[in-house]
Specification:
Blueprint (H helix, E strand, L loop, with lengths): L1 E10 L9 E7 L19 E3 L1 H9 L5 E5 L9 H10 L3 E6 L13 E5 L24 E6 L2 H14 L1 H4 L2 E5 L6 H11 L4 E2 L3 H6 L6
Parallel strand pairs: 2-4, 4-5, 5-6, 6-7, 7-8, 8-9
Antiparallel strand pairs: 1-2, 1-3
Length: 211
């Protein structure tokens, strides 16, 4: 059984899958409290669903792409069972995780989108750096940046750890905190091997999260 906040069909707003029609399975609960979090409604509540119930609701949309997100999906142990079941069904599956929990047991078929929390998030000490050892070119690393100090910190980590050699790296401005054009200028000035990511769903629908 898993605690589920919502299951819905929309366009993927982030990562290299941006723009693709996707079913989102949003799990309830998260051990982090990032300052820019836009899914606080998923911290509690939700409803208990079996894996078969979740699979049935996902199948009702006849999707090709499925994203398991939160909250923090890996905070619920049975999320690993769900991820494997989705892969077994033939979906192209991605996992959006905070980077604070161990990803070692996540099914290798899943594209793992792993955050690295910056000082501006308020949760930088929660980064589980051992996760880097499990990432492949199939995965992605994401930094959400609140200001210039966050950018400088992320740039240092990128170069020091050679993160772009491991997998694609995304730099995303925290919505309403960092001007996207400023971030674009810094990336160009420093010629960083990263992808600037804007949240497509917010460009389309504003503050309406998850749709």
């Amino acid at each position: 059984m898993l605690r589920i906040t919502e299951i819905f069909y929309s366009l993927q707003g982030e990562t290299s899958r941006m723009g693709l029609p996707t079913v989102f399975v949003r799990l309830t609960g998260c051990p982090l409290r990032c300052g820019y979090c836009d899914t606080g409604y998923a911290f509690s509540g939700g409803k208990s669903m079996s894996i078969s119930e979740i699979m049935g609701e996902v199948a009702s949309f006849s999707p090709r792409y499925v994203t398991v997100t939160g909250g923090e999906p890996l905070a619920q142990a049975d999320s690993l069972v769900l991820l494997a079941a989705l892969c077994d069904r033939g979906y192209s599956v991605s996992l959006e995780t905070s980077g604070a929990l161990d990803i070692a047991r996540v099914d290798a078929r899943v594209s793992r989108i792993v955050d690295i929390k910056t000082p501006g998030s308020g949760e930088v000490e929660k980064n589980h750096w051992n996760n880097l050892a499990y990432l492949t070119s199939h995965d992605e690393i994401k930094f959400v940046l609140c200001d210039r100090a966050d950018y400088d910190w992320a740039r240092q980590k990128l170069l020091e750890l050679k993160l772009d050699v491991i997998c694609p790296v995304l730099f995303s401005p925290a919505y309403g905190q960092l001007v996207p054009a400023d971030l674009a200028a810094w990336i160009l000035q420093d010629q960083l091997p990263v992808r600037l990511q804007l949240q497509l769903h917010k460009l389309l629908w504003g503050e309406c999260v998850g749709r």
